[in-house]
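Quick log. Single chain, no ligands specified.
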Amino acid sequence: MAFPPHPARLLARPRPATAITRAAQRPHSSRRPRVHRSGLAAIAALVALCAAAASPELLAAVHAEAIQPVPGLSTADDVALAEKAALLSLASALNNHPAFAWAGWTSASQGLSASDSKPCVQFWEFLSCDSDGRVSSINIDNPTLGTINASWANQKAPGGLSGSIPWDSLTVLQRLQAVDLSGNSISGPPFTPAISQFTELREIQLAGNRLDAPVASQASELFNLQKLDLSNNLIPGALPAGLSALTALEVLSLSSNQLADSFPLGLSALTALKQLELGNNNFNGPLPDQWSTLTGLQLLDLAGAGVVLPLPDSWAALSSLETLSLQNNNLTAPFPAFLLQLPSISDVTLFNNSLYGSLPATLWNPTKLTLVEVSSNFLNGSVPQPPAGRSADFSYSTNCLQSAPSQRPTDQCSSFYSNLPALVQAAAEKARSKGCSAVSSLQSAAAAAAAAAALLASLSLALMH
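-> predicted structure:
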């Protein structure tokens, strides 16, 4: 299927249009503003040469830098053409989606000399370039393709990218800092061993694809990486232990995959983390006490991640935490009281678990707390209401709370609390069999469960409804 012709695409001209002519011919309404990278590069080169005029040694150094931009490639033209070949291999591996022709990757070089047939000279779509005319980012995410697909007025749009990512063929892109291919239909492994060569990468966004192989251990060598988003894929297995070396990471999103492992203790080394998203996977075992080192963490998503054991009290050190998502687990524990010590906490979602005991009377002590969702648990006791004047979203239906609407039937509450000590003790035994460090806290939880069962037995269940 052929894309509608790009409105400003110049093909098969005797000589290339200048950047100014090409920019003038592109409708402003359909083009993002661009910085004239090649012009900046020329100015920078001129300044360097002028500064070197009085120093033969410096002039020689400038010349050497110009002719040795990449090991094994002797000139800047060689590098540009090698980067072009790498990008064309990417287009081929992604099944030559029609968007590449629209963007000029596969057609804009017709009729141009080799020296002018360069991605950063021709301003290929989906790319950003640095001041030296080197490719620095690739962005072909779903919103970008959606804009192109919208131009299919009378024919079926081709949809997202498919195929796999040929990291091995892209290693010449040594200035690459960001890759965003999210929201497509790309399959295969998220990385190959060649990923270790992309040492300048700061952001990788591959969310919402069909990636279906484990994360390669070589990804642990991307020491400058600040954002890694592999969420909403089909990635199986365990995470590489070496991810603990990525100490520059600020965002790690691995939610909605098929990861199956214990909660990774090594993430405690990622002290720059602001967002950690591991929800909707198949983790097991206790949550690590050591994650208390993540004092800059603002968002922690463990919804549907396989959490069954109590949250560590040491997490009271998570002083920057604003959002905690733990819904849709089988968390069998009292309400985590340490949350009330967090000065920044604003959103707490704990619905659809097996929380027991009463809600703390001081629930609303954190002044920024405006969202508490604890529906579909087995909480008992009274309901602490938000203070007057506090605008808060508080949902607590389908529990065992006293004098509250929409609670569980009495027999459900009675059955749960009767079986609770055995349930918690079974979890403690499971933790002991795995050699977990959380056994002592689980034994305390079992004692609390027994006390809760005794308390409920001594009350009139009629008061709960």
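Confidence is low (pLDDT under 50) at residues 1-69, 459-465.
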